[in-house]
User: Which sequence fits this backbone?
């Protein structure tokens, strides 16, 4: 969704007219109209105000996606290590912890490769 469409949609969801939104963020009504039609884009300060009033994320509005794969990879390693250590404790073989951590790492890399 383009930024203008997002502004229009969120404004309508909030039940705000262009005039009311313009008053809240201290710009002219015509400015809101130009943003909604993608003729112009808001400056940084106006975008921050829009995000607060219309309750949206600036990152998502700008199309910025944060990668979270690294966290999943870390949890696979930690999970594998914990499971392996638990099994190692039960079976009195602590090398299982390291083997499961390596397996978790390998699975993480495979999942990351298939995602791309």
Assistant:
């Amino acid at each position: 969704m383009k930024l203008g469409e997002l502004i229009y949609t969120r404004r309508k969801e909030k039940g705000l007219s262009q005039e009311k939104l313009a008053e809240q963020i201290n710009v002219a009504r015509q400015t809101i109209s130009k943003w909604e039609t993608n003729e112009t884009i808001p400056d940084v300060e106006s975008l921050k105000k829009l995000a607060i009033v219309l309750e949206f994320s600036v990152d998502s509005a700008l199309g910025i996606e944060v990668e979270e794969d690294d966290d999943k990879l870390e949890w696979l390693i930690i999970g594998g290590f914990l499971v392996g250590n638990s099994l190692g404790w039960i079976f009195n073989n602590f090398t299982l912890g390291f083997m499961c951590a390596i397996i978790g790492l390998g699975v993480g890399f495979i999942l990351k490769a298939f995602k791309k």
